[in-house]
Amino acid sequence: MILLQSSKPFNVQTLLLGEENWNFLPEVLLRSAIMFIVTLIALRLIGRRGIMQGVFELVTIVTLGSAAGDPMFYKGVGLLPAILVFVMIVLLYKVINYFTSRNKSLEHIIEGTCVRLIKDGCFVIENFTPEEISKDEIFSDLRLQGVSHLGQVESAYIEPSGEMSVFFFPNEQVIYGLPIRPEEYERQEEKINRPGFWSCAFCGITEDMAPGVTPVCKTCQTTKWVPSSNNKRIE
To answer: Which one of 54, 78, 155, 221 is at 20 to 30 Å from 30 when CA atoms are compared?
Structure first.
């Protein structure tokens, strides 16, 4: 009986607009466009490694999800403004897709581009900074693909989706490289204590060194070194 009792009669305008009026609808369109752009910028600032799908598609999903959720939970949010949000976002999606398919520069701004992380067993440090991409995340992705040291990797790229693409040397061409297994990578030294190949712990450059020296990496100017490995990759 309580459910049948209501202090207000059924009102179609309340169903469509909630507690707002018709003058609010143009503002909905403006709010949708502004928040779509703000969300896109925010996700680009977060960086590609925080996103496991295309930035543009993720913005669309997040925005549409919010637009769908609010009118379900809040009486003050009408159905019609939420529908207009959907219409605005879909239109923006179609328009931006249209222009990005015809303008590569715009596509790179919105979606980003792939970044080469590794070349011939060494990090391409000029393509990224430690603040942008965590080396622990890179090592984790490489280990999941069966990599035990960088000498097995001819090239690796971070794709616009945030995923990593890895291209390997054939086993007969594997070179000495920086080990990425935690128990090996943590064996860092500043002074070389035995002869052989050692890899820079930061950039991965590998050199044949004599014991007793305290080398500075000629590529990144760091002083931490790890005994190199040339183990073949287990396929």
So the answer is: 54
Rounded distance between C-alpha atoms, residue 216 and residue 208, angstroms? 14
Phi, psi of 136 (to 5 degrees): -60, -40
Residues 187 and 165 sit within 8 Å (Cβ to Cβ): no
Q: Give per-10-residue mean pLDDT for the chain (235 aa).
A: 54 68 77 74 56 64 72 61 78 80 76 84 81 76 93 91 88 94 93 93 93 91 94 84
Task: Provide the pLDDT for residue 66.
Answer: 76
Domains of the chain: 12-111 (no CATH), 115-227 (3.30.240.20)
Residue 15 to residue 110: CA distance in whole angstroms? 37
Residues with Cβ < 8 Å from 195, sequence gap 6 or more? 208, 209, 210, 211
Q: Do 186 and 213 touch, CB atoms closer than 8 A? A: no
pLDDT in the model for residue 133: 60
Amino acid at 95: V
Q: How many CB atoms are located within 10 Å of the residue 49 CB?
A: 17
- Using an 8 Å Cβ cutoff, are 52 and 162 in contact? yes
Exposure pattern of 151-186 as b/e (b: 16+ CB <10 Å)?
bbbbbbbbebbbebebebbeeeebbbbbbbeeebbe
CA 24 to chain centre: 37
What is the model's pLDDT at position 89?
79
Q: Are the C-beta atoms of residues 209 and 196 closer than 8 Å to each other?
A: yes
